[in-house]
Specification:
InterPro entries: DUF805 (IPR008523)
Protein name: DUF805 domain-containing protein
GO cellular component, one term: plasma membrane
Largest sheet: none
Helix content: 55-70%
Shape: elongated
Strand content: under 5%
Number of helices: 4
Pfam family, one: DUF805
Keywords: Membrane, Transmembrane, Transmembrane helix
Length: 135
């Protein structure tokens, strides 16, 4: 699963996102990167809306209800953190860039730009050098 799947469907991309959750070698196509990003943003939006709705509905104990909903959101974000980093590194590899460039996303304000740049980088055939395991 180190080769990119160009033109991946939503289901294929999300499946590969979770199956390669800790795979930092190989490459990922644009569709393998953007479909999970979209799915994650939609899920976080839904969790946020649910948190607001639960807090508004639970007038008597809104702190507990919103705390539980917020906890679910935090668990989801932690669950997708490693796969998100992994697919970003593989996306950089597809553009023939070092995965260490992902650290640019850790710089405040620059990180928003870095996410978009990682996603729109063109595929570079020389990125195939990342397909071969080093050991």
């Amino acid at each position: 699963m180190t080769l990119p799947l160009y033109g991946a469907t939503f289901g294929q991309a999300v499946s590969r996102f979770f199956r390669n959750y800790a795979n930092f070698s190989g490459r990922a196509s644009k569709s393998e990167y953007w479909w999970p990003v979209l799915a994650s943003l939609v899920a976080i939006f839904v969790f946020s809306m649910a948190t607001s709705a639960i807090a508004a509905a639970a007038v008597s104990d809104s702190n507990l209800a919103s705390g539980v909903a917020a906890l679910v959101t935090i668990v989801f974000i932690l669950a997708i953190a490693l796969p998100s980093i992994s697919v970003s590194v593989r996306r950089l590899h597809d553009a023939n860039l070092s995965g260490w460039m992902y650290l640019l996303a850790c710089i405040p304000i620059l990180n928003y730009v870095a996410w978009i740049v990682i996603g729109v980088l063109s595929t570079n055939p020389e990125g195939a050098r990342f397909d071969r395991p080093r050991w």
